[in-house]
Input
Amino acid sequence: MDEGERLREALHELQVLRERERSSHAATRALLDCVQAYATASDPTEATLALLGALARAIGAARVLILAREGGQVQVLRALAGAEAARGRPDGAARSGEGAGTATAGARASMGEGSRRGAAEDATEPPLDLFKRARNVADLSMLGAWPDAIDPAPHRSLVSAPVPGRPHRTLCALHAAPGGFSRADLALVEHLAPLLGQALAAEALADDNALLAGVIAGSPAPVAVADATRPGRPVVYVNAAQARLAGAPPEALAGRPLAALAAPPAHGAPDRVGATADSSGAVDRALFEGAVAAGLEARFLVRAGRADGTDYWADMTLFPVGVAGDDRRRHLVATQTDVTDRVEAERERDRLRARLTGALGVTEDAFLIVGAGGEVLFANAALADALPAPGPGWATGTALAENLHAFRRYAAARPADPPPGPDDLHELARSGGGRELSLPDGRSFLVRARHGADGTLVVTAANVTRLKRIEAQMRARVAAIEAARDGILLVDSAERIVYLNRAAAELLGFDAPEAGLGRDWRKRYAAPDLPGTGAVLARRTDESGRARAHEITRSPLPADGAAPPGAVLIVRDATERLADESRAADLRAALGRAQRQEAVSQLAAGLAHEFANLLATINTAAHAIGTGAAAIGAAGAPLAAPARRIEEAAARAGRLVARLRDLGAPPRAGGTADLSPLLAALPGAAGEALPRGTRLEVETGDTALPAPAAEEAAHACLGLARLVVARGAPRARLRIEIVQPESARPLDAGLLSPGCPYAALEISAPGRTTPLPALPPPAERPARADGRAPCGTTAEAAFESGAAQPRFGDPADALSLICLQARAAGGAIERGMADDGAPAFRLYWPLATGADEADGMAPGPGSPSLAGATLLVVDRDRETGEVLHAFLEGLGAEVALCDSAAIAAEAIREEPGGWTAVIADDDAPGSDVLATLRAPAPDLPLILVTAREPAAAPGTAQAGAAGVFTKPVDLAALADRLAALPPRPGPDA
Output
């Protein structure tokens, strides 16, 4: 490198160094200017504003701010515009929270438009955290929303630094141009941030001192401050209240010894309450002067004089004051209060206490006065007698707690209520109530307490032992009367209620006992003229409309002058007792009827069983004869008709046996059957149901009448026929018609539903002129003359207990039961006239529709073939078994006959796969045929034949019989059931 190059490089380095030196010099000068502005300010507030203004001028800021974070949001504490800083002295600042005084108008103007809208809008969070570290933001508009005081519109760049020692405070400067601050500006802000912290702390301290001075100067309590480091403790400050109390201006009191503020009066005359100056404060004054000389903390009551010669009682308090970090006592502060009125009141109280003590010393009630500090001020002799306190003895000056503790020790070994403690007495005084206290000797006291205006506690205890005993007796009597289940009333001579218990109020229909006071009790009953004495039975209707019967006993009060004339009434509700007696009589009568009905039911069941076995033999034999006659063709024609009549008679006899078996049994749901053949068979089946010589004419058609409980409908028609031919009518006529009403039709008994088909069965007696019996509702039928229950109730009981068929002894009972049958089946009955003018009953019986017609209405096919079937018949009646054996063999089956279930079980066990089914009689007493025959081959179909109801066959539901047939057996149905059984593997399997 030549000489020229080295010279240029040296010059360049020299220029760089000069630039650095100039920059450093500028930064140092700016820092010195700021420090000088801070140091030359007249007060801490001016120092803070001067520091902000110097900073604004040094870095060319358009705005300087002090920001604070309060409650998670940023607020502006101070704001100074660059224009104010350029004038050399700021006109003001917006100040908030740092102990500053009232901001000037210029300061409020310098906060900007955002702050004028209110602190709530300034309290927003900037997009950068300005409180963690120093920042130099080149363009504010690139970072989003800012608080109103840092609006990016006029301010484009920002420089900030946190204030050390002042948490959540930061120094911030704004510039109008982007990138308006350099690194040197940022460094200057960081250097000034600690100085700003000291300025804020000094300002807060100055504000606190100013506040304290203002409080002391304006305090209504007299305050004097003396220099504790100088002899005599001269006064250096008095507030206005102390000057008024002493009666001298503050400048006259300054420099005087502190003890002179409590100097005695200039004259020795007695004070306003009768004591001399020397005897009313000399001791406390000597102690006060010693405490002032020693600089001690103390409190005294002294008598002092004013400048005008008057005197007063002062409550004087002394306390020394030092400097933080210095153990020496720099000043001595004295406060005093004029308590002349209090002292006079206490002395007056002492005089009144002496008079009160004399008055309360002779009273029988215990009396106690306790001072605000808990000391006994007064206790009379009755208190010591009521609450013995060995030791302190309730002496004046002893502590309340000490006396109560002594009483607890005295009462510890004796059963009594725990005595109240001091807190209990104060709580009693606050509540204003009373508390009962039982003593070990059995006496009772009512303790009351009240607080006095001066904080005293006044306690009284009245002896209520006799009143407690009387109250306990009265309470026990009232409780017994109120707990009585009978109503008890006390009435006066005009029969007005003087007292009634709760039971009496309920019986007489009053909402509460108070509602009946003063009312005439007789008006609550239907009979107003009740006997004056003795027991009577009165009736009334309660609020719900129910009739009630009350038994009332009246006892007059003795006319001895101790009580007004009147009477005591005892009221008992006899409604349930009378009803129980009536129900007991009805139950006894019903029990007799039930016992008679049970006997008849048992007899009928036994006869039905025997007849069923006989009819089974007859029916099976007739079926065999008819089958044989049909097999031989024309030669057997003479036998076919008699055999058919025998079968029809056996079927009708079977239905009669079923009715006999049902006598006394609960009703069962019947299936659907064709009503037409049943009605057609009524003339031949009437028998003894109609009077001798009376015939029944039935006009039937070819239309099938599928009806539920068809047999009940036929029997109802027979019963109505008996009613219409009563009194000698020669014949009865039954006409059938199908009707379907379009709307609901209420009839004499029952209701016709719209759209439902009915078989209208009209039963009349041509030639009869007398009217038919009426059809009243069951609830309206009167009692019978012979004393039995009304017709409706008797018939309803019989119907509901299972006697579903009409009995033809009493026409009223028969008609009632027929009405019940019709309503139970969904039908109805009406009384009217036939076409020929004869009176007639019209029975409407509902007809089955749709799927209901499938129940037993389809005609069965011819007897099926049982060829190949191997059947085992078990029947203890040999004749019945042989007839059934012949019938099944006639259908092609191989049949074996056995009269013992045990023998049949052995045959099944020897060859379980060789039988198609077993037909067994289930009427052997004490035997379980199903269990016996099922054991050898559980899968073998078992068909039961019984003279009982199918549901009564033992073990039917549990064993799962393949079928149950009632005697006399429907042979066609039995053949169909056997033909439908699934095939079983033969003997070889």
